[in-house]
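> forwarded from #structure-qc
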């Protein structure tokens, strides 16, 4: 950063002289300064300046008036030499890098140069530096049509190009999964910019989300056809075809990893405020405590103070100041210890941290203690900073503490958290109100130079009150503060934003959108939220999203209790729940329409969600709010909303593998159903939990909940629902090796099924069970019947598998090829490719088998379906053995065995043992081969896996 004056045009104009902000209230002064800054150190002719400042209506004494404006601008800038007079105009003497427009262009060039020389890390840093300079639309508060038309399109296009180039760099670095949410937003905001769509498709494909990548292309195709009447470019069509066939050149770049896992470097800090003021002692003290040596102890610093003194602002500012000292990243969470709604759930927070550190969702344990242990393990040896905001008790913090001194922790709280001091060695830094000098300095930044001592005193030197007061006084020269700034700011509002402010305190989650606020108050809330944001009564941490400061939420709640009747509050709360429920139901229609759901009582319009990409983005953003709403509805009513939301949400939680939220919402839904005596909902929640525990390979709990659900549905006489539960129960039994119980459950299920989809699903399971029992003829019969009922990719894959096992290779290839043409989710496609690989291997084509099995593993290896991944590794190990790559075969089969045992995948365990026995024998390790074969015989006999038992006995 250069020294001297700093100028910002990429957003509202800002001028800074050292620590002071210069406020240019006159729009024409801003236009004049912008015209000079956009051409630094060059003479801008008077004629051009006149056009930029006055447009088509110049004053009578143009040159004289312009001279007056220049004189006033020089005075405001405090250095007359900055603006020089030339023969026919004026010149701004300034280092171009002191102007964010030129600094942005410079960083963009540095990024492109580094990317061209394949220095991707430097390129990423330069592009990030460029993008961080944008605070909003360029010249957003400069009233000059000519300046805007001349510069805004060019700079906006450069911004889009930098976004594209940075994303290309991130893709080359292998960060595709982290890019998906951002690219959903960019394609939504710029639907005709094809490069963003291409990057989204590639990022989704590399994240094992092939079906969504193909859907993104279809969405773009529709958009271009509807809006422009054209087709996607040849480049995009080629990419679509490559994704369709799984072209090897689309694979993610190979990045070096640690032997187990290379954690990512999350950067989770909220944005630092541009007008941070004072607190010099605090910054120095916190820095010393965080960075000073304490031996092996984890440095823990607690910022303690009353509400509204700026603890969060201080913590975030210090964390940004220290960012370079912690190159492995920063973790941040708002623990909501003093919010009106529920505090942040420990399992949810731990799960979010683990995901941010690169742990695949299916590897995150559901138990909080296990998650905490995993977090400490991942942080060991790294240099990271953790900021735990708004903690109300030591127990909220302890599970999140690292175990290494290189990962310090900053905690903010209204209390000093003495338990952390006594048991964890925390050091407390008290945070009180501003000093009078700090208060005056902040008001000068917010309101401009002036005498602010009296106002600062009336605000009690409380930073929150100072900011609200400044917002209240902005543009009101004839108004003074004579009471509580917050109360005055509220009183100055018209009735509509006052009512919205009160009702927003009903929101149980951490934030809200304008759509949610509109539903809550039954108004168009966009404009009202803008009014509240200008008054600093709500803040907007991200575009389109708003939240309260805890103190303001409590104030709003006290007003609501006083001014709004219980009936009015109940109507608003129910309307918010209706909004959430209708939103989840709309997403369910787009993302998982085949999953049966409980009948809905929700009313009102659904949020604006048009595509599956929109649905996923909406659910990702609203997940904390939905979880909080379910818990609040379960505890305070209306109870039906709790179980309806939990039931409609389960498909999304399954897709995203959000185990913590899934467990919480299902239990809250069950609690509400049991308290209300609503048996259908209770049964649905037991089935929900059964599915979750099956996903977690907790088979005993899965059986318990499925059995309870089946009993309830039987008592209700709902045969379709009971059959669905029995179908899932058979899968639980099959995976845990209880094949007899699995077959019994399936037979009972098929007796009840009536719809073709349900029958085909039951036949799939019965066919797969027959394969494991060695009854291949029966499996072919079951899969053939399923195919006749539902000719989809799965039915072709399963029939192809059974035909291959029968030795009918040509027929098998036909069905497996058809399955690939139809397309499937990543796990389903991996199963198809694995079976094609096994077919090629059976026909002696080991090289072709290697290519197919490798493609299959790439789809599920990193966070995909672990049962499929284990099965694919067994097949790939057999291929490696055929190619005489015996060491590679051992590694793959050993990985498959470990995974199969961890998740309770019985037949996969036996297949891996058989494979290892064969490889050990070829390596001359007879004792190891015999031990593996004997274990395979024992397990297959115990489980009733007759076909595998026969193969194992030939090796024992």
């Amino acid at each position: 950063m250069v020294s001297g004056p700093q100028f910002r045009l990429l957003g509202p104009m800002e001028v800074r002289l050292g620590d002071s902000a210069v406020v240019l209230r006159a729009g024409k002064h801003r236009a004049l300064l912008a015209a000079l800054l956009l051409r630094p150190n060059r003479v801008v002719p008077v004629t051009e300046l006149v056009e930029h400042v006055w447009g088509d209506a110049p004053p009578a004494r143009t040159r004289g008036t312009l001279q007056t404006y220049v004189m006033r601008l020089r005075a405001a800038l405090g250095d007359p030499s900055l603006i020089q007079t030339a023969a026919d105009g004026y010149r701004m003497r300034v280092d171009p890098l002191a102007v964010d427009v030129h600094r942005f262009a410079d960083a963009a060039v540095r990024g492109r140069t580094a990317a061209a020389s394949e220095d991707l890390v430097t390129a990423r840093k330069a592009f990030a530096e460029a993008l961080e300079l944008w605070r909003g639309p360029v010249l957003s508060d400069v009233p000059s049509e000519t300046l805007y038309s001349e510069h805004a399109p060019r700079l906006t296009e450069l911004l889009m190009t930098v976004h594209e180039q940075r994303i290309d760099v991130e893709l080359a670095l292998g960060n595709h999964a982290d890019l998906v949410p951002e690219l959903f937003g960019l394609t939504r905001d710029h639907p005709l910019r094809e490069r963003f769509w291409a990057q989204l498709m590639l990022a989704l494909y590399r994240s094992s989300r092939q079906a969504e990548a193909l859907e993104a292309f279809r969405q773009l195709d529709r958009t271009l056809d509807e809006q422009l009447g054209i087709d996607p470019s040849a480049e995009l069509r080629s990419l679509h075809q490559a994704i369709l066939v799984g072209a090897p050149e689309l694979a993610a770049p190979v990045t070096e990893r640690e032997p187990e896992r290379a954690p990512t470097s999350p950067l989770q800090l909220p944005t630092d405020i541009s007008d941070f003021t004072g607190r010099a002692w605090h910054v120095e003290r916190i820095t010393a405590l965080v960075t000073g040596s304490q031996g092996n102890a984890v440095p823990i610093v607690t910022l303690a103070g009353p509400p509204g003194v700026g603890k969060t602002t201080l913590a975030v500012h210090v964390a940004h100041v220290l960012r370079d000292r912690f190159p492995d990243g920063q973790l941040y969470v708002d623990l909501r210890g003093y919010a009106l709604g529920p505090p942040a759930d420990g399992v949810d927070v731990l799960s979010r941290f683990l995901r941010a550190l690169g742990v695949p969702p299916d590897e995150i344990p559901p138990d909080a203690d296990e998650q905490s242990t995993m977090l400490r393990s991942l942080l060991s040896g790294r240099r990271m900073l953790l900021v735990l905001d708004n903690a109300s008790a030591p127990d909220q913090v302890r599970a999140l503490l690292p175990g290494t001194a290189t990962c310090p922790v900053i905690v903010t709280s209204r209390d000093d958290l003495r338990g952390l001091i006594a048991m964890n060695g925390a050091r407390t830094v008290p945070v009180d109100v501003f000093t009078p000098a700090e208060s005056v300095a902040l008001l000068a930044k917010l309101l401009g130079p002036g005498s602010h001592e009296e106002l600062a005193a009336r605000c009690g030197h409380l930073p929150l009150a100072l900011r609200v007061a400044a917002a209240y006084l902005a543009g009101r020269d004839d108004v003074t503060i004579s009471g509580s700034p917050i109360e005055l700011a509220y009183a100055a509002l018209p009735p509509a934003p006052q009512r919205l402010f009160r009702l927003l305190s009903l929101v149980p989650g951490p934030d809200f959108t304008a759509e949610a606020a509109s539903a809550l108050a039954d108004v168009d809330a966009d404009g009202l939220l803008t009014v509240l944001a200008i008054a600093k009564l709500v803040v907007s941490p991200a575009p389109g999203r708003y939240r309260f400061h805890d103190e303001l939420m409590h104030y709003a709640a006290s007003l609501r209790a006083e001014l709004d009747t219980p009936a009015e509050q109940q109507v608003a709360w129910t309307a918010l729940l209706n909004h959430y429920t209708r939103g989840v139901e709309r997403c369910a229609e787009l993302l998982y329409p085949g999953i049966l759901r409980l009948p809905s009582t929700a009313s009102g319009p659904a949020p604006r969600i048009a595509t599956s990409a929109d649905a996923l983005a909406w659910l990702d953003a609203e997940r904390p709010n939905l979880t909080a709403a379910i818990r609040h509805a379960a505890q305070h009513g209306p109870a039906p909303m709790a179980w309806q939301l939990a039931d409609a949400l389960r498909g999304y939680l399954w897709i995203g593998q959000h185990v913590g939220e899934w467990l919480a919402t299902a239990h809250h839904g069950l609690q509400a159903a049991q308290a209300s005596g609503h048996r259908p909902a209770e049964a649905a929640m037991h089935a929900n939990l059964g599915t979750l525990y099956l996903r977690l390979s907790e088979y005993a709990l899965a059986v318990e909940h499925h059995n309870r659900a089946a009993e309830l549905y039987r008592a209700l006489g709902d045969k379709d629902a009971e059959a669905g539960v029995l179908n899932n129960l058979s899968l639980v039994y099959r995976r845990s090796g209880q094949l007899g119980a699995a077959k019994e459950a399936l037979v009972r299920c098929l007796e009840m099924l009536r719809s073709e989809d349900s029958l085909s699903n039951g036949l799939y399971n019965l066919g797969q069970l027959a394969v494991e029992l060695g009854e291949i003829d029966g499996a072919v019969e079951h899969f053939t019947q399923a195919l006749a009922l539902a000719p989809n990719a799965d039915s072709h894959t399963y029939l192809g598998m059974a035909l291959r096992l029968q030795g009918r290779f040509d027929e098998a290839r036909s069905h497996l090829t058809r399955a690939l043409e139809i397309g499937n989710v990543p796990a389903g496609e991996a199963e198809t490719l694995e079976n094609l690989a096994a077919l090629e291997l059976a026909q002696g084509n080991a090289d072709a088998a290697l290519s197919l099995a490798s493609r299959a593993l790439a789809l599920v290896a990193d966070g995909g379906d672990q049962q499929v991944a284990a099965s694919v590794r067994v097949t790939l190990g057999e291929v490696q053995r055929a190619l005489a790559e015996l060491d590679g075969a051992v590694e793959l089969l050993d990985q498959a065995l470990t995974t199969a045992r961890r998740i309770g995948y019985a037949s996969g365990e036996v297949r891996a043992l058989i494979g290892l026995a064969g490889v050990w024998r070829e390596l001359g390790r007879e004792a190891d081969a015999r031990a593996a074969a004997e274990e395979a015989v024992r397990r297959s006999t115990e489980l009733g896996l007759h076909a595998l038992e026969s193969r194992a006995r030939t090796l024992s």
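QC bot note: Confidence is low (pLDDT under 50) at residues 255-263. The chain is about 65% helix and 5% strand.
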